[in-house]
Design brief:
It is built from 27 helices and 22 strands. By secondary structure, it is an alpha+beta fold. It folds into 5 domains: 7-77, no CATH class; 84-139 and 350-488, no CATH class; 153-335, no CATH class; 508-537 and 757-882, no CATH class; 555-737, no CATH class. The strands form 3 sheets. Strands 3-4-9-6-8-7 form a 6-stranded mixed β-barrel. The protein has a 6-stranded mixed β-barrel with strand order 14-15-20-17-19-18. The protein has a 4-stranded antiparallel β-sheet with strand order 13-21-12-22. Helix 6 crosses helix 14 (399-439) and helix 18 (556-571) packs across helix 21. The longest helix has 41 residues, at 399-439. Residues 76-82, 490-497 and 877-882 have low confidence and may be disordered.
């Protein structure tokens, strides 16, 4: 009896989950299928075809069949050595290179996408590693800790530790083998060609010893140097020794004038040593610690090296007990808490940490978008090669071998991309270093941003991960081919449907990631635009700035006389349009303190509000082009002997004098003001830009520089042509008044403003580049999926058109499919992007992280650009090619 039933198909379905090698599966299906056909021919005449078929199918479902298949699987299973031998991997590499040479477009697109992702990720990791992770360039730097006082209010504001507390800690602590304290300052050195103002650190014995560094010449400080009556000594940095003493090896023991006083040189530190941050010289702390109680004394940083076997957790537990005991002795009811952290982590602000790691997370999103693009390319390639893979499987290739071959090919793409990515990262690192050197004068001495060995290992790890992420899904898809279906399906429709579903899922993820990046880029773009278009309400063009500090041996009267003579001589220079002396500069160097408004009642001194202040000479308004809204400005007649006056800005007037005329009202500044400190408001100016992205337009008060009771350092601003308003002019006038006073911090006002805005301008621009790169990759990825879908559905669309569908309706169908993917991806992506923006809010300027306009604009871009690429696919062209 003829049996039209396909018994071999039933056997193959029964074996689908058996895990047999394809060749063994085919042999077993043929063997059992022939047996079932013979059994059916024998049983059908006796019990009928239906009953015979049901009986044989029941036998096929019995447990014995599974056991037979299991025995066949154990006999057929290839050994691990044969699957992963070096010979087989080398064979796959040779085959992979030959195969990829036949697809130059796939290779170029895949390498370009991955190179962009790997390059950007490597550049950001290099910055983080060189600045944050590598640590100090000393032995076992992770053992060096910085101790600071945590803010009891929980706002995260850190403070220094009083010197009296340091002395007690030094005597009682047991966690640190070496222990010391320091504070940073500026110092003037004179003698030689001209005076200089440099960064210095005042240190105790032990503060430099925690690094393990030794003096290149002479010695470092001992406890005898810290005695209040000890002869003043100084330790030179290598740059000072090289530039001022021409590397004279006999410099030890010679004198050096520091702040107008003679110091004895005791040593020279090695080249590159600028501990704790970027200091060029070190002086001893010479404070009388004997009479200091806990909580008293100058605030200092405490630094120590942990003893072997002691961890930071142990040190912090000990510090907690010591700080509580000192607080009780001092009668302090506040929750004082001193903490130890790794030195670099404690010295770098937390907002910098969060911003840099947010940027690293952002470039990882770009890398994932690139991996998704390559995965789609490889899926498309796998669909085109489904017949080839089916033939390989039919000839005996195992599923593991198919997966291995696919992963090898994605690894080849990732390897080539890693080489190109390293070159791209190196270019970015060079540009970043040049920018940082130009705008950051106090870059930490340990910052070394380049392609270190750990960074190159990171590249290898990223390349391996990228090859797996981009190649695993196509590899698994290739290994799941049904040999019989593939070999019978001339149009590849079955394989294409599976690939199409996978590709669409990948594109949704791709759009989600790029939408997250695009949202962050949108916020950064708006911040940059706002900053560029911002009117600071003062002029920065053609203004030269510098700073001078009177010698410490100069008394207050002589310092005031120096500043008055300097103001007079600068204003008289021909070609100068304005000259001002101030204790800071608008937009970059304001001071701060508490303010009390006459008539307002404060229950406690701590309730008095805090405002920004700036003491200026009368030339401030002309030099910076600051207009007056009410009253008058600071005049040259506002001297120390006259009634104290202040000029407030519009924000301060609205804050403290809402609804009333502030002119004639009185305020006083300072932590402990007296009746003599009351000052009369004589004018109101516009609110000036403060140079602070978190509070760009705060309340501010201008005072008269001549009425400041204590003044030792001033900033100078000259407005005029470069040939007149320059360092030579200022140095000549200052030298004529006092040859020991150095002129330092030389820069144009435009440069100072750029330095103040660099987190938004530089890091924000990098965010924008990341966002644009991810969006372009996502748009290309969506276009590729749409093109693949159209090319694989030509027969379906041909039938639709033959049955009356118009080309427009077919295009609409394709676009609706793309719109669904875009909508799903954007929904997820914007949720992720909101988290990225929150982490990077330190780089925002006058933009709220929840700004609806940015969300709307980002959504429009994220929708229109991929949609435009998707609609570029013409199904009619695809039909003509069929």
């Amino acid at each position: 009896m003829h049996d039209p039933h396909d018994w071999r198909a039933d056997v193959r379905a029964r074996l689908a989950s058996s895990g047999l090698h394809p060749q063994d599966e085919a042999e077993l299906a043929d063997e059992v299928g022939q047996h079932l056909e013979a059994q059916f021919a024998e049983l059908a005449p006796k019990i009928g075809p239906v009953a015979a078929r049901e009986q044989l199918l029941a036998e096929l479902r019995e447990q014995g069949f599974d056991e037979a298949a299991s025995r066949r699987r154990r006999r057929a299973r290839p050994s691990r050595a044969r699957v992963w031998s070096s010979t087989s991997v080398l064979r796959d590499l040779r085959y992979g290179f030959r195969s990829l040479r036949r697809s130059p477009g796939t290779v170029a697109a895949g390498v370009a996408a991955l190179a962009l992702g790997i390059g950007l990720t490597t550049m950001m990791y290099s910055i983080i590693y060189g600045l944050l992770l590598k640590g100090l360039p000393f032995d076992d730097p992770s053992r060096i800790a910085l101790i600071y006082r945590a803010d009891p209010t929980g706002r995260g504001e850190e403070d220094l530790v009083p010197y009296g507390d340091y002395v007690r800690y030094r005597a009682e602590q047991r966690s640190f083998a070496v222990y010391g304290a320091y504070y940073t300052a500026m110092a003037s050195i004179s003698g030689g060609d001209r005076p200089e103002r440099i960064d210095v650190a005042r240190v105790t014995s032990g503060a430099l010893d925690v690094t393990g560094a030794r003096a290149a010449l002479g010695r470092t400080f001992t406890s005898a140097d810290n005695a209040p009556d000890a002869p003043p000594t100084v330790l030179l940095g290598y740059a000072i020794w090289r530039d001022r003493f021409a590397r004279d090896s006999s410099v030890v023991g010679k004198p050096l004038r520091v702040n107008g006083r003679a110091y004895t040189i005791i040593g020279v530190m090695p080249d590159g040593f600028e501990f704790p941050r970027s200091q060029k010289m070190w002086l001893p702390v010479q404070l009388d610690a004997a009479g200091l109680a806990p909580g008293q004394g100058r605030p200092v940083n405490i630094v120590g090296r942990l003893r072997p076997g002691v961890e930071l957790g142990n040190a912090n537990a000990e510090l907690a007990g010591l700080s509580r005991r000192l607080a009780r002795e001092n009668g302090d009811t506040a929750a004082v808490r001193d903490l130890a952290q790794p030195f670099v982590r404690a010295l770098i602000p937390a907002r910098v940490y969060s911003l840099l790691y947010a940027m690293l997370g952002a470039v990882f999103l770009v890398l994932l978008v690139a991996c998704a693009n390559v995965a789609n390319l490889l899926l498309d390639r796998a669909a085109n090669r489904s017949r080839e893979i089916g033939i390989r499987v039919a000839l005996g290739a195992s599923r593991v071998a198919v997966i291995r071959q696919s992963l090898v090919e994605s690894g080849i793409l990732a390897g080539m991309a890693a080489i190109a990515g390293v070159a791209l990262a190196q270019s970015g690192i060079v540009a970043f270093n040049r920018t940082m050197l130009a705008i950051q004068a106090d870059t930490p001495f340990w910052a070394d941003i380049r392609l270190h060995l750990p960074v190159l290992l990171f590249v290898i790890g990223v390349a391996v991960a990228a090859s797996i992420v981009s190649g695993l899904l196509p590899a698994l898809h290739s290994a799941r081919v049904d040999v019989n279906t593939i070999l019978k399906d001339e149009s590849h429709s079955a394989s294409s449907r599976r690939v199409g579903r996978l590709s669409r899922a990948i594109v949704v993820a791709e759009i989600a990631l790029s939408s997250a990046m695009l949202l962050a880029a949108g916020f950064m773009t708006k911040s940059i635009v706002r900053m560029r278009m911002m009117d600071p309400h003062f002029t920065t063009n053609a203004i030269f700035t510098a700073r001078i500090t009177a010698s410490s041996s100069t008394d207050t009267a002589r310092a005031r006389q120096l500043f008055e003579g300097l103001e007079r001589d600068l204003a008289s220079v021909s070609g100068v349009d304005g000259a001002v002396l101030a204790n800071g500069l608008p937009g970059v160097e304001w001071q701060g303190g508490r303010v009390e408004v006459e008539g307002h009642v404060y229950a406690r001194p701590q309730e008095r509000p805090v405002t920004r202040t700036l003491a200026v000479s009368s030339g401030f308004f002309r030099t910076f082009g600051v207009s007056l809204l009410q009253g008058r400005g600071i005049l040259s007649t506002d001297r120390a002997q006259t009634q104290r006056v202040v000029v407030i800005n519009d924000a301060f007037a609205r804050w403290q004098f809402a609804g009333v005329n502030p002119i004639g009202r009185r305020i006083r500044l300072g932590e402990t003001p007296t009746d003599a400190d009351w000052a009369t408001v004589v004018g109101v100016i516009p609110t000036l830009y403060a140079g602070n992205s978190r509070n760009a337009w705060p309340p501010e008060v201008l005072t008269s520089l001549a009425q400041e009771p204590r003044l030792s350092s001033v900033s100078i601003a000259l407005r005029g042509a470069d040939g007149v308003a320059n360092a030579a002019t200022v140095r000549r006038i200052v030298s004529a008044l006092d040859p020991e006073v150095p002129v330092y911090s030389i820069a144009s006002m435009d440069e100072l403003m750029f330095r103040a805005q660099w987190p938004v301008r530089v890091l924000g621009t990098m965010f924008v580049l990341f966002g644009v790169a991810s969006l372009v990759l996502a748009a290309i990825g969506l276009y590729a999926v749409m093109a693949f879908s159209v090319s694989r559905r030509t027969r379906e669309m041909g039938i639709r058109i033959a049955l009356g569908a118009t080309a427009g309706s077919v295009v609409g169908m394709i676009c609706r499919q793309g719109a669904v993917q875009i909508a799903l991806g954007m929904t997820v992506g914007f949720a992720v992007g909101a988290l990225v923006v929150q982490a990077a809010r330190a780089a925002l300027f006058e933009v709220r992280p929840s700004d609806p306009w940015v969300f709307g604009a980002s959504a429009l871009a994220a929708c229109l650009i991929p949609a435009f690429r998707a609609t570029g696919v013409d199904p009619v062209i695809a039909l003509r090619s069929e």
